[in-house]
Design brief:
The complex is a heterodimer of chains A (90) and B (365). By secondary structure, chain A is an alpha+beta fold. Chain A contains three helices and five strands; from the N terminus they run ααββαβββ. In chain B, strands 8-5-11-12-13-10-9-20 form an eight-stranded antiparallel sheet. A six-stranded antiparallel beta barrel of chain B has the order 14-15-16-19-18-17. The chains are: A alpha+beta (90), B mainly beta (365). Chains A and B meet through helix 2, strand 1 and strand 5 of A and strand 15, strand 16, strand 18 and strand 19 of B.
Chain lengths: 90, 365
């Protein structure tokens, strides 16, 4: 789980320090350990160029959202309510 | 706990000329408590707003319909479907109010709606074909019947392993029956793979045809790909690997990139198009131990491709096993193997990781 102190330190990062894929690899297990989180991936903001991380939630939950940092190592972290990810056989 | 089926049963509805039901509501609950059916106060509020404005808005040819939906925050909203090919779509959108009676108005760009009985405007992805068959069609393990249900997916594409052609699909389509359970069987090498799948022949395999033989590779739970193969029975599958409504593909592959336009041909939704919204995803997916069976394991994949799937229009149940290719007209290169998703998001294994696991190459030009 993320600690508040960690989150605050990460939010104060002035700029990205390493490749966003490395940042994802460093934090994906912690994010997946948060109840309700089903995935995390690399995306871009609506401007089409600014890299960000998106955290996928099974359902909307204020408690889960509070546990997710707003930034990680300078990269924005966005929340996306996707629902459960299931195999799509029939 | 509300199951997806309960949700869909409660929510899917259409009325003449107008998408006035709940086609975009998904299987997960947002902030409003309880089942979001027609009796829910939030839904009724949206329906009241919808009734007030729909007839007027639909006088504009650019407006294809309205519906009750959920926004990205899980709040009920009034969806307005706009024809993405309409010249004046931008102007129509600008003239729409942001709210009606306090209900948020949400625009969704879409193709023109059409009957889905035969996806892709006439090509059936579920009918039995005269061999040699094209891929992008319904199929599955011949014995995939247990617990009162039958299962299947999509025979997605053709790969070559040491010069032998194999149909490529998903582990959970061909070989996920790993307990004797409800059918006293487990999937074994040599078992027939049929076209179409049991789900499209009333669960009666006698009405389908054998097209390949399973070669069990057990990609899950240990590896990072959800793939399975079956060696082609000579004469039963087109040797050029043609896929329904896509045609032949390239033998080369291409890495996914954000914003990349892609398409796929699958059992349920036929030929559909979308774009890649994310890369390098770490995703948790739960698997059953047989058709309609118990939980076998939860697998965490890394490095996955994320694709937009609004309203399950790109990928839906039964499309698993479809090959995702770049959206070009001629001999597209493979990008990923589709295997999982939700009503907003589809997930694909990067095709190169699949091919490396199998020691295979794509069959194509």
């Amino acid at each position: 789980m993320f600690l508040c102190s960690q989150t605050m330190a990460q939010q104060n990062s002035p700029s990205p320090r390493r490749d966003i894929n490395e940042v994802l690899r460093a934090h994906d297990k912690e994010l997946l350990a948060i109840p309700g989180v089903v995935g995390v991936y690399v995306a871009v903001l609506d401007d089409g160029k600014t890299p960000c991380l998106k955290v996928m939630l099974a359902r909307k939950s204020p408690e889960t959202e509070r546990a997710i940092p707003k930034t990680l190592e300078g990269y924005p972290v966005l929340i996306e309510v996707t629902g459960e990810i299931r195999p799509l056989g029939n | 706990m509300i199951t997806p089926r309960q949700f869909l049963r409660a929510l899917v509805a259409l009325s003449a000329g107008v998408l006035s039901g709940f086609v975009s509501l998904s299987a997960f609950a947002g902030p409003p408590a309880g089942v979001l059916d027609e009796t829910h106060a939030n839904v009724r509020a949206v329906m009241a707003a919808q009734k007030e404005v729909t007839a007027d808005w639909m006088r504009q040819p650019e407006v294809l319909g309205t519906a009750v939906g959920l926004d990205s925050s899980g709040n009920t909203s009034l969806l307005v479907y706009i024809d993405q090919d309409a010249k004046n779509a931008g102007e129509v959108i600008r003239n729409l109010p942001r709210e009606v009676r306090g209900v948020r108005v949400q625009v969704e760009m879409t193709d023109k709606f059409r009957s889905m009985a035969k996806p892709g405007g006439g090509t059936s992805h579920t009918a039995i074909q005269t061999p040699p068959i094209q891929l992008g069609t319904s199929g599955g393990w011949r014995y995939d019947l247990a617990n009162g249900f039958c299962c299947g997916g999509t025979l997605g594409s053709l790969v070559s392993i040491a010069g032998v052609q194999h149909i490529l699909s998903n582990y959970h389509v061909f070989e996920s029956d790993i307990v004797l359970g409800g059918n006293n069987r487990i999937a074994l090498t040599g078992d027939p793979i049929i076209q179409p799948g049991l789900i499209d022949v009333n669960c009666n395999a006698a009405n389908a045809q054998d097209v390949a033989l399973l070669v069990k590779r057990s990609s899950l739970p240990a590896s990072n790909v959800d793939c399975a193969i079956a060696s082609v029975i000579p004469g039963q599958v087109r040797t050029d690997g043609a896929i329904l409504e896509i045609g032949t593909i390239s033998s080369q592959t291409v890495a996914a990139s954000i914003g990349q336009a892609v398409k796929k041909s699958g059992r349920t939704t036929g030929l559909t198009r979308s774009s890649i919204s994310g890369l390098n995803a770490t995703i948790s997916v739960q698997y059953d131990n047989e058709c309609a069976g118990g939980v076998a394991f939860t697998k965490t994949f890394t490095g996955q491709i994320v694709v937009r799937n609004n309203g399950s229009r790109f990928l839906n149940s039964g499309d698993s096993g479809s090959l995702m290719v770049e959206d070009v007209a001629t001999n597209p290169r493979a990008v990923g193997l589709l295997f999982a998703g939700s009503s907003s998001t589809a997930i694909a294994n990067p095709i190169n990781e699949v091919l490396t696991f199998l020691g295979a190459t794509m069959v194509g030009n």
